[in-house]
Every structure is written in C-alpha cells, then in structure tokens.
Prior knowledge:
It is a single chain. This protein is α/β, with parallel strands linked by helices. The protein folds into two domains: 2-151, Spore Coat Polysaccharide Biosynthesis Protein SpsA, Chain A; 243-333, Tetratricopeptide repeat domain (Serine Threonine Protein Phosphatase 5, Tetratricopeptide repeat). Helix content is 48%, strand content 11%. The chain contains 14 helices and nine strands. The protein has helices at residues 10-17, 35-41, 55-64, 82-93, 161-171, 179-190, 194-206, 212-224, 229-242, 246-258, 262-272, 289-301, 305-318, 323-331; strands at 2-3, 25-28, 45-48, 70-72, 78-79, 99-106, 113-121, 142-144, 149-151. The strands form two sheets. Strands 4, 5, 6, 7, 8 and 9 form a six-stranded mixed β-sheet that branches. A three-stranded parallel β-sheet has the order 1-2-3, sandwiched between helices. The mean pLDDT is 96.
Amino acid sequence: MIALNEEQTIARVLSAAKLFADEIVVVDTGSTDKTPQICLDYGCKLYSYTWQYDFSAARNFAFDKATGDYMMWLDADDVVTTERAKMIKALVASLDADVVMLPYHMGEKATLSFWRERIVKRSLGLKFKGRVHEAITPCGKVIYADIPIIHDKVKQGDPKRNLHIFELMKKAGEKIEGRDKFYYGSELFYNGLFAKAQAELNDFLASPSGSDGDKGQASLLLSRSVKDENMRRQYLLNGLSHVFSPDLLCELGDSFLRSYEIEKAKNCFLTALVADRNITFVSPQNRGLVPHLRLCYCYWHLGDKAKSKLHNDLAAKIAPDDSRVIYNSSLFT
C-alpha cells in the first residue's frame, strides 16, 4: 500500500493484512504523523517515496519492492474483516490465476460498489496505469471472488486533489484521452464544473475508446448535469445503448415519475430487476430495493394494490428496517 498521514486507520488494515500476507510493503509519501512508526511496529517493509502527483508511479514503486508469488494492494483506510482475511488466506493457498478481481465497497452498506483487480501474479510484471484512478488491465486467467474490501474514509480528503493532478497534466502538455478523459470529466462533474464536465464527457462518448461500463457511467453523469428532463432522458437512453444497466433504468424511471408518466416508469423499474449489465460504479440498491419500492408506488397509483403490496413485501425481504418499507406497510394494514 501507499500511505500519507494515515495514523487514524492504518493499524486497522495492517492487523487484517497480518492474517494472510507473507510480507507487507508500505510506501510512505511524506507522512508527518505516526504512520511510519505504526508500520514499523507491525513489521512492515517501509519505504519513503517522494510524491510525484502520480498514483500509478507510487503503486508501481510499492510493487517493485514485493517478493511474493502474488501481490495484493490495499489502501490505508480500507477494512478487511477477520472473516474475509481468512477467506483471502484460503484463496491464495491454492491459487491458480493471473489476476483476482474482488468487490470494492464504498462503506459497509455499499452505497457504491465495483470490481477491482486486487491480486496479481508478480511474474507477469503487470503495472498500474493512469496518474489518477490508477488501474491494472486484467489479463491471462482472471477469476472473480466474492470477498469484499470495504473503503472506509475517516479523515476528510481534498475534493480537488484528483482534479489538480489532471490540471497539472494539461499544463505539462500531456494528452488527456480515453479512460483519463472519462475520469477528468467525472472529477469536473463532482467539483460542480458542469459545463466543462459536459464537454469532456461528450468527447469521451464520441471517441472509440473506453469500456461500455465507462460509457454508461459518463451518460449517467451527463444526465445529472442537466435540468431538462428530455435531455436527461436522451443521455440515459444513450447510456443504455452501451450497457443495459439497472442504474440507468432506475434513473430513467425516476425521470418518468417526475412527470407522472407512471406506466413508463413502471416498465423501467420492472426491466431494472432483470437487467444484468453494469456501469463502472454500481449502486447495489438499484438491483432490488429501489425498483421494488418504486414499483410499490407505481402499482399503487395505477390502482393495483395487490401488486403494490407484493413489491413492498419483496423490498421488505431486502431491507426490513428501511423507513420507506415500514411506511408503505402501514398502508396495507
């Protein structure tokens, strides 16, 4: 892992890593707190590294220091439960793969989730690419294991950090294209620079490069950057042409609900329940809970109370303590 001033969380992840890792390599990029000492206390191989505004360069430096047959990366504010640490240990004990993909959940309740290339065979010499949102392109024999890693931020980060790196790239004359253009547009969006975000994301959609998941994600962000419902729907439909995703269908259904087009909304949410493709960053609730709650509403207003109750009951099986489920249940008593 790479770390900078992570004294609040790093012991948590190091304790878990000790349960499965033969060695722990930490690359410190300039901490001024107790992070380095905590790493030494846990027996880590600790290296100092001058930050170059390039996450891939730092992670690749860490990979270069590893000596095991397989390498796994973590962030200092990640959480690996004891149970999942044991699952990782069992997985690698007889591992026959080049790359292992594991789910990455943003928070234990997973409001956002996506797969990451988490464990790689060292002999392949795979490298991270991208100064921001760095990633390794999976190759060879790739397996998916349902062992979630939880990203649990404690300290408030700099929301402009990644955007600043992209701006440095532009000043240096580096081309921002392909995957980088998608993430540059995303950072502009999340920093409220919608006009600039629209330009970058539309350029990305018009280019031949980029995964279907990224194209769908870009379309979702574009739909959220405009107020006009017709334009919003056009972006969502364009996204669905790339990836038939529950996230896009739920967003489209919500758009129809805002104009009280209940029948169209109902069809979107019904389809979301069977759609099986993903945008890059998935909201797990859109695979079950949200469509069922929305269908409860739709059928109620369409006059079919039996189907309305059915979908609320299905939502209750997913999240019985959800306030919306509880409120809806009171309507059927």
